[in-house]
Design goal:
The protein has helices spanning about 10-20, 25-30, 35-45, 50-60, 70-80, 85-105, 140-155, 165-175, 185-195, 210-220, 245-255, 270-285, 290-300, 305-315, 345-350, 390-405, 410-415; strands at about 1-5, 110-115, 115-125, 125-130, 155-160, 180, 205, 225, 235-240, 265-270, 300-305, 320-325, 340, 380-385. With about 425 residues, it is an alpha/beta fold. The protein has a six-stranded parallel β-sheet, sandwiched between helices. The chain has a five-stranded parallel β-sheet with strand order 6-5-4-7-8, sandwiched between helices. It has a three-stranded antiparallel β-sheet with strand order 2-3-14. The longest helix has 21 residues, at about 85-105. The chain is globular. The model has no long low-confidence stretch (mean pLDDT about 95).
């Protein structure tokens, strides 16, 4: 992890690094785009044949192994899970569900004037595909984070795809009541969910995090099916002036261990804190190979000239996870996927148990949206209705606007109803 000053002789070097970080989403996926396009094209043309070929090559799928994970497999996984882990999964599921229920939008209507009523109705998506990574680590938490809000929204068909699904992930699927679970991962899973195969019917929207290949595939198919966001490799920024170096370092190492492509950054104007955190990160990552790799490649401690500059830089980088010192810091936060406040709020709590979703925007997409929520699984449909009297009162204004735009048919569609 490197300390970079944003002022003085180091200013130009730091700015070059910052500008590169601002382009991280585009640069990262560009590295795998050609491979991903080939996989997408193969699955679209060959369906299950290509799915099996890529799954055998990348994930060790046996030739006689069914793509569909059976209910019996999920039940057996749940039965063999420790009571301690079952309790943790149940609590996580309950908190995720409660949070999603609070987020769920409501139908409403009102009358701006007599005889004119406008409002909205809420309808769930017909189907979603939940991608659950399964490479380095089992991620039952991601299954619960993607499936649960879809269930709260009322989505009728929920499909899970995960490569080499671990026992823990299958146990979470059993707890969640998943009925359609495929042992397929990578770009080939995204292709199947988007285009459909003989075995896997296409879905209306694909959600969930993944590596660069999954992220690039989601972006590529987004013209055909909906996606939540490009949720790629993990990102963390800790913006602190007075935080505890041990706790800050622990969060940086924790998120860095997800992936060698993970991004871990401290931003502070406190030089002593920057030096202490860097030393503590080195100590805590000594036995964590993946964290060491990501911290060496994408680990930075930006030392700014002021706290205000630290705030500006944080919003500029728009991190997936952001930790700040105190609740008062929320006043300056503009761009982030999820915010964690204070020493007693480790980011790992949000990864597993708090309730807010851990599928969060990466690659600076925190500038335009927050994390996955129940809103990603519903449609808000607007509704309007007029009486004749109301149409006669308001209609002439519509006619005036339509004629000003030269759209005479629009004007006439109102005029004929006013008679």
């Amino acid at each position: 992890m490197k300390i970079l000053k944003t002022f003085g002789d180091s200013a130009s070097r730091s700015e070059a690094v910052i500008q590169q970080l601002e382009q991280r989403g585009t640069i990262n996926t560009a590295k795998v785009d050609s491979v991903v396009q080939g996989i997408l094209a193969a699955v679209r043309a060959q369906g299950d044949v290509a799915i099996r070929e890529y799954s055998a090559r990348f994930d060790g799928l046996a030739g006689d192994q069914p793509l569909l994970v059976s209910h019996e497999e999920m039940e057996a996984a749940w039965d063999s899970t420790s009571e301690e882990l079952k309790a943790a999964m149940r609590l996580a599921q309950a908190n995720i569900r409660s949070f999603a229920e609070k987020q769920l939008p409501r139908a409403w209507s009102f009358r701006p004037t007599d005889g004119m009523e406008v409002g909205q109705i809420i309808r769930p998506l017909s189907s979603v595909g939940c991608y659950v990574p399964g490479g380095r680590y089992p991620l039952p938490s991601t299954l619960l984070m993607t499936v649960t809000p879809a269930q709260v929204a009322g989505v009728e068909r929920i499909v899970v795809c995960s490569p080499k699904p671990a026992r823990e992930t299958m146990a979470a699927a059993y707890l969640a009541g998943v009925t359609e679970f495929y042992r397929v991962g990578g770009a080939q899973a995204i292709a199947a969910l988007a285009f459909g195969t003989t075995t896997i019917a296409p879905v209306a929207k694909i959600v969930g995090p993944g590596n660069l290949y999954v992220t690039a595939a989601k972006i590529a198919v987004s013209h055909q099916t909906g996606i939540d966001m490009p949720a790629g490799p993990t990102e963390i920024i800790v913006t602190s002036e007075s935080g505890d170096p041990t706790g800050i370092a622990a969060d940086l190492v924790a998120q860095a261990e997800h992936d060698p492509e993970a991004l871990a950054i401290l931003i502070t104007s406190n030089a002593d804190l920057a030096e202490e955190v860097v030393l503590e990160v080195k100590r805590q990552a000594q036995t964590n190979t993946i964290a060491q790799q990501s911290l060496a490649a994408q680990g930075f401690a930006f030392l700014t000239a002021s706290a205000e500059e630290a705030h500006t830089l944080t919003n500029r980088l728009a991190p997936e996870h952001l930790t700040v010192d105190a609740g008062a810091d929320l006043r300056w936060v503009r761009n982030a996927g999820s915010v964690f406040i204070g020493h007693h709020t480790p980011q790992s709590m949000g990864d597993y148990i708090s309730g807010p979703n851990h599928v969060l925007p990466t690659g600076r997409n925190g500038r335009i949206r927050g994390g996955l929520s129940v809103l990603d699984f519903v449609k808000i449909i607007t509704v309007q209705q007029y009486t004749l009297d109301a149409l006669r009162e308001v209609g002439p204004h519509t006619i005036a606007l339509a004629e000003a735009e030269g759209l005479t048919g629009h004007a006439e569609s109102v005029r004929v109803r006013m008679r």
